[in-house]
Amino acid sequence: MDYGYLWGIVRYNDTVHTVTTGNKEVNFKNEQLIFAIKSSILMLSIYFIASKFAIERSWFVALSVFIVSLPVWLSGVYTTTIKKIKHLSGFVNKGLLFNLFSGRIFQVIFLIIWALFSSFFMLIQFYSYDNIQWFIFFLTIPVFWLIFSYCKKLTTHELKPYLVVNTALEWTRMVCPLIMLTIYIVLNFIFPNVQSFESIHDAIEFKKQALQNMNGSPLVYELSRVLAIYDGFKAYALAGIGEESRFAAILILSIGGLIIFYNACAMLSCLVIPSHEYRRLVNPLTPVDNSKNLPNPNIFFISAIATFIFIFVYIPIFSYIDSWTLEIQKVRVVIESTVTAKVEEIDGFVYQIGTHQEIDKLKNETLKKMNLPKQLLNEQVDRAFDKLEGKVGNYLDWYYSLQGEYTRIYKMLTGELDTYMENQLKNTLQNEDAFKDVQASVEKAISEHDAAQQEYLNVVKIILEKNKVSDFGGYTKKILKQSSLASVFTPPSHRDIINIKSRMFATGTTVAIGSMTALISKKIVTKVIGKGTLKLASKFLAKVAASEIIGTGGGAAAGATAGAAIGSVVPGIGTAIGAAVGGILGGFGVGIATDAAILKLEEVYSRDNFKKEIINSIEDSRREFKESLAQ
Hints:
This protein is mostly helical. Helix content is about 75%, strand content about 5%. It has helices spanning about 5-10, 30-55, 60-90, 95-100, 105-125, 130-155, 160-190, 200-210, 220-240, 245-270, 295-340, 355-370, 375-390, 390-400, 400-415, 415-430, 435-465, 485-490, 495-505, 515-530, 535-570, 575-630; strands spanning about 10, 20, 25, 340-345, 350, 475-485. The strands form 2 sheets. Strands 1-2-3 form a 3-stranded antiparallel beta sheet. The longest helix has about 55 residues, at about 575-630.
């Protein structure tokens, strides 16, 4: 081979790669773009068909298989035709031997059967594909194009024109599936199946469980059960990757992988065969160019034959097979019911059928026993807060009394005024256990809730012990439902009761008598403090204390005058002593009278507002408490 010549006619550059054959120049960049668009549409269509294949009715299945098998069949017939032309090129006359060897009917029939069967297998396999497997399938597009382009470049200047495309496709269909299979196996080793199985039987049964929603065609369902055996072997082998099953995993992956990737390459082959080359499928076998358009009679004849085969041969045969499969399915169900023990599984332990249903029924009954009397609680809460509001008057009576006044002045001098006023309000509100009934109702609901949960756990143990299966009597077990022991032993819970329990009873399910009243009173006092109500009262008291000094001085002077008069009357006491005693008495008397008057004045102007501020805080707490019950 003249490699210098070959290098001269094959040119590369950064933008467009072209190969010159005679005077014809093919732009491979445009070919690549067109192929990418057509192949993407093809593969996305297959993805859509696969997503509906297992759940749609029989008509959709028949149409899907036909559509997917058509490109597989076309590429196969094209290869068969080119091979026939090549083999017959040695004949000089079209005699008896030529006619004998030029027949393609048997190859065409075989290709029809293969295309339909393999397409059916592909679509069923696609139903169980995960994201990684779909990624590998779509990866076939660029791998196929790279191999085909390289093979076509090698053959373009070495073979006759009619052999170039087919030879490149044959090489591609041999190399590409092997490369894709290698990628498929490597990725399965990198991302192995995390599901583990104790036996191959368990793996097969697990795969059959995934077929429960395949309620479309009976043929699809029954063949899927057969393929579930293959998938079970594959899953079991992949779960043991890294152990002695490595070779088995590779072998099992290769069986289905080669079919999938070979058919994918066959379908992609149809996209790179020049349109005029398809005329060879219906024209006489000849190596010459078939660029002429088909005569109209030939087009009519081909269309009629294709329509007849699809409507009057393919559809009736598929319908018959589907109906026949339905009858077989009914027989299989009857046979399986007599030789298969249907059971349920919980964490590897086997139980009688209906165990989960019995446990679910117990959960519903347990929930019915859990009750939070919301209407009663709301009524009790309103009565409790009404009692608190009624105690505000007691607090204000103390506040506007002389005893309260003088005690506050003393606490102001010792720096304890704010704390003292807060404690007085808190003690007044919780003087009577206003929330006694509320707390009793909540504690009762929580107690009954916990008792119902404990009863549930006890009954579940009895159900499991009663329904446990250890001997199958020679029958094959079929697991209909699986769950974990943790989910079974998780008792039902009342959401409202759990919320109240977590919000109000952080230390447990019961609390000391009166603690709810104390808790609510503390929250109310905190709100009052937050609004600055008690702070304003303290500042007002400081102003009153300053004004009292003036009033007390005036009282002392009046007392001195009265004392002097007393001293002049009482012998032995004297005017000076009388004045002193009178000043003291006058100071107390006038001071108390002044304080009483100022307090009365303060009460007239501020009591209603003071009461309103405290009542508003109580109403805020009432609203928040009720909201907590409703959540």
